[in-house]
Structure formats: C-alpha cells, structure tokens
Amino acid sequence: MHPPRKILHLDLDAFFCAVEAQRDPSLHGQPFAVGGRPEARGVVASCSYAARRYGVHSAMPMAQALRLCPELRIVSSHHRLYEAHSRQVMAHLHNFSPLVEAISIDEAFLDVSDLRASVEALAREVQSSLWEALALPSSLGAATNKLVAKIANDVGKRAALEQTPTTAKPVDAPMAITVVPPSSEAAFLAPLPVRALWGVGPKTAEKLSALGIQTIGDLARWPEDDLARRFGKIGQSLALRARGIDNRPVVTETETQSISREVTFAQDVSAVDELQRTLLRLTRDVGWRLRRTGLCAGTIKLKLRWSDFTTLSRQVTLESPTTQDQVILQAAEDLLAQAWHGQPVRLIGVGLSNLQSPATQLSLWDTGEDKGQDLQQALDALRERYGSDVVRRASELDEGETEGDKGTR
Predict the structure, then answer these.
(1) Sheet of strand 345-356: strand arrangement
(2) Fewest CB atoms within 10 Å of the CB: 122, 326, 337, 345?
C-alpha cells in the first residue's frame, strides 16, 4: 500500500500589493489598493490587508473603496512586473519538487510526496524560503490531495485574518499554514458550508439547500445514488469530494486557453475613432502576450458593454491561426462594424482563443502570415527595451497630440 501523498497549495498573500510595496516601501502597513482611478470607473484589483480591515476587497469599484477608507492610497497596476515576479516564484518552487502546477499568477500546487520531512515542515520551509529569497508573503494548505489542500488554505487564511495582527509575522499578511492530516479529510470538511466545495455554485447550492443540505458533512451523508439521479455526473463527483476524495495528480504543464484584455472608459464613448484607437492598443497588448506564449490564435473575440450594462460578445474563427497584431486588429474592427451601431460604449475588450502551436508545414497557398513576422519581432524587441509607446501609429494620436503625451491602458 502506497503512503499518503503530500500535497501543498500555495497562495501568495495580496500578491500585487506585496510587489508594489517592494517598489515603494512607504506602502508597508498602509491601506492601499492596486487598480484604476475612481474617476475612470476603476476597480480594485488587489488591496492591502490594512485596507481590508475597512471592508475594501477585490473587484470593488474604487469609488466605493474610497468611501469606506478615505485615506486609501491608489496604486496603478504593473502587470508585467507581477508576471516577472510570478515566474521567479514558480522557479523557486521547483527547488523543492519538479511537480509544480501553477494554477494562476499567484497560486500553485506542489507534490512533495517524495521528500522525507513532514508536510508541515515542508510547508514552513517553502513559506520561509520565499520570504527570505523574494520577500513575498505566502500561505499554504497541506493535505493528501489538491481539493483538501486548497480548501485548507482558504480556511486558514480566513482564520488568520480574523485574528488581531501580531508582531510575530514579518509583514501584515496572513502567512498561514494549515495542515489536514491523512484520514481526517472528511472530518475537516464536514462543518464547512457546501459553497466551500469545488463544483458548488449558487444554483447548485440553492438546489442542495432545498434538500436540507447546508454543510459538506450533510452532503457526505446523503445517498450517493440519489445525488447521481438528481445531478448526474456532477452528483457523483460531489459525493466523492464531500468525503475528501480527490485523486487528481499535480499537472506540471497547463495549456493556455485564452488571452484577453479589456478597458472600461471613464465616460461612455460614441466616437468610432476613439473605439478604433482603443482596439489598436488592446490588440497590441494581447498580440504581445500571445507571442510570449509561443502559440497562434485561431479565434478572435470582441466584447462590448453598453451604458445600460448590457454586454455582448462576437467572435470569428480565422482561416489560418495568426500571431500578427494586424490580423487580430482587422478581425476585431470587422466585428465592431457588425455589432456596433453608434450606441454609447462603456467597455470594450479583445480576446484570443483556440490557441495552438504554430503549424509545422507551410500552407500550399501563401496566407501572408510570414510576411510581417520580421517586422513584428522588431517592434516587439523595441517595445520590450524602450517601453510600449516607443512605436505608435499616427491613428493613435488625438488631433494636436504630440508623441509621448499618452500612454497605453
């Protein structure tokens, strides 16, 4: 019989804020939020724990955050910097195990089953080494599987935040470590609400509540065959998860599914030239990210939101996948012409999906895809070295604007 697995779930504490506090040490211990300006309908991307004590949280409109915390400092996002720090973190985690699964920019699973030390000791070593090497606070959950490790980390972080801050921690962050020993998975999960379980959204929770199922323990005690009859395959999965059973391996490579970028305007826009300029900036951003992945995009998607918050999406699948900004832009502009009829636009976005590896054989007919490759690479190199605004089209400049007056969103 194989010994129980040792799985860690790592979550970087207020990651964007931790990176910003490295850039500006005066932010340490202060209530601040990373995100857009309130006058531009900005939202909170992340906020410090000092800000969270005022009720500020991610995805909250920045204007509301300022009402809750008038002294809140607002810091602009630096996503490429966050991505660089994330790559450093993931590389550091490979010092402990080759089995590292990055599930987001600030979260990862590690399978440390082959290491002799206890899972709690390993969790503490990972946490302390990340702080010493990269000055980034983190929290970890440890268990015999991914499901329970993730939930343990969520529970541990919430409990740590409910406690009075202490000077024992090097920074104002949870830095929690929560361990669920083998054979105690079901008991650990039992008192938690069913919404804590993967696969239970609002609608499923409502259906379970109608049956009198409020906690994961209630769900674990419910007959599995009845759950399967009522919910199909998801019912069978829920029955296993409620008992803390999850045999999924830590997957070392996760394929990128999509790339997208969107912007909310400070004031609703009805001018086609401004929409086109914004599409150009968004296209340049997603195109750069696409080329960084080494993939091609087969489908281009346009997202629009009107002033009444009605949102629509339109997409087109290309005859051949592309990496080129011009091809992406042309597709996005065509979709805009089809979907937009002059109504005020609150939000616009561009997305790439159907991502795939570049074709290994040349097409019988020349699609023109290769013709702009050298120019695109040269532009990427210039922007990487000198900034995103080093090369811009004349169409990006407002009347009377000189180069350098505006930056990209």
Answers:
(1) 259-269, 345-356, 296-306, 311-322
(2) 337
